[in-house]
Design brief:
single chain; 156 residues; alpha+beta; Nucleoside Triphosphate Pyrophosphohydrolase; three-stranded antiparallel β-sheet
Length: 156
């Protein structure tokens, strides 16, 4: 496997509430398989699937709705390595390379994390500052980079 193939292609979503841009409330969900770990919805891009197809499929699978509007996209792939404990179950991958999107929930969207294969036990909307205090250490640098970009561009 080449070095590029050691990272699983993935799409990730920073979702703001339908109160955006008046309020910049960011969706974050607590994983049901890792103690007290919160994250943005994300998931693998299947073979033959384009990034936006994966985005909408993953939204349905993880939060039960794809009723969103794409506000912006982070302009490049960004990667992180799995911690050793997680890496064992993700072989042959050593990490993920992700495309990030900033999304706004439509007024008609109803979040339902009790999906066919639930990944989250709860969720909440938090401020930009709160996000980094809740996230996993191994994703923190990616989250910080992407959030700083959207902030610098005037979105957050």
């Amino acid at each position: 496997m080449s070095k590029e193939n050691l990272y699983r292609p993935n799409v990730a979503m920073i979702i703001v509430s339908n109160n955006y841009p008046d309020k910049k409330e960011i969706f974050i969900a607590q994983r049901n398989d890792l103690h007290d770990i919160w994250q943005f919805p994300q998931g693998g891009i299947d073979s033959g699937e384009d990034i936006e197809e994966a985005l909408f499929r993953e939204l349905e699978e993880e939060i039960g709705t794809s009723k969103v509007k794409i506000i912006a996209e982070y302009p490049e792939w960004i990667s992180y390595d799995f911690p050793e404990k997680i890496a064992k179950s993700m072989k042959p991958f050593k990490g993920q390379t992700q495309r990030y999107f900033l999304l706004k929930l439509k007024k008609s969207a109803v979040i339902n994390i009790d999906t066919k294969h639930p990944e989250f036990m709860s969720y909440k909307f938090v401020s930009l500052d709160e996000v980094l205090n809740l996230t996993a250490h191994f994703k923190k640098h990616v989250y910080q980079t992407v959030l700083e970009y959207f902030k610098k561009e005037g979105y957050l």
